[in-house]
Specification:
Layout (H helix, E strand, L loop, with lengths): L6 E7 L8 H14 L17 E2 L8 E9 L10 H6 L6 E8 L7 E11 L8 H8 L6 E5 L7 E5 L4 E8 L4 E9 L7 H11 L7 E11 L7
Parallel strand pairs: 3-10
Antiparallel strand pairs: 1-3, 1-4, 2-3, 5-9, 5-10, 6-7, 8-9
Length: about 230
């Protein structure tokens, strides 16, 4: 069983930082701790390195307002001072919001709120909301998700039980905002997979550009996870 480490950061990943990979993001934080003079627990063994772990890997090109990073602080520094120290050492787009004691394991994360911006250069097509409601109306909606672990090269997911709530609203004549609460793990639903399945069914409703942002993380009882 994985160890639950003592301390966590809540941070944002926005702007140009959305193109920093998951592994490079962890490396950025490892360097930031060092530059800030904050000693954190290191892994054991021959190639020791400062330990950090991010709750849920974020897809490249996605932004987030609610990323959670776990570590063990060794330095005798008040947790309230850690965000400012790290923010001076982190690149643009990575910003620590708070540092706090961990209270529950990552495995208790159940859902994520997503903010999805859909841009239509020629204006929002008619009846997108009606089509999306129809898309999610069946009792089951099976799609294939690429998987390196499967001999077939994919796994099958039923999207219906993984979409817990959603809403749509226009933001001007050319932008549509989709907000949805999706399963986060065991299994997880990437919102890009949801949109790919939707536009495969309704190709005329494919946006010219889409942006994805995590807004909040929840545990099973619906409370915010920290």
């Amino acid at each position: 069983m994985a160890k639950m480490h003592a301390h966590r950061l809540l941070y944002e990943k926005t702007g140009r930082a959305i193109y920093i990979s998951h592994l490079d993001t962890m490396a950025q934080f490892q360097r930031a701790f060092f530059r800030a003079g904050l000693e954190i627990w290191q892994t054991e063994g021959y190639n020791r390195h400062a330990y950090v772990s991010i709750a849920l890997p974020l897809s490249l090109g996605f932004s987030s307002r609610c990323e959670i990073l776990e570590f063990d602080l060794v330095s005798k520094v008040p947790l309230g001072e850690v965000p400012a120290l790290l923010n001076r050492a982190l690149p643009e787009g990575l910003r620590v919001l708070s540092c706090y004691e961990a209270e529950r394991p990552f495995k208790q994360i159940r859902t994520l709120d997503w903010f999805i911006s859909l841009d239509y250069d020629s204006g929002i097509p008619e009846d997108v909301e009606t089509a999306f409601r129809s898309f999610l109306s069946p009792e089951h909606l099976i799609v294939r998700k690429p998987s390196k672990k499967s001999k077939k090269g994919y796994t099958e997911l039923d999207l219906i039980p993984m979409v817990h709530r959603w809403s749509m609203e226009p933001a001007g004549e050319r932008q549509l905002i989709l907000r949805c609460n999706l399963a986060a793990q065991e299994p997880s639903l990437n919102p890009q997979l949801l949109m790919e399945a939707f536009t495969a069914r309704y190709p005329a409703l494919t946006p010219d550009f889409a942006r994805y942002c995590r807004e909040e993380v929840f545990q099973e009882n619906g409370e915010i996870f920290r």
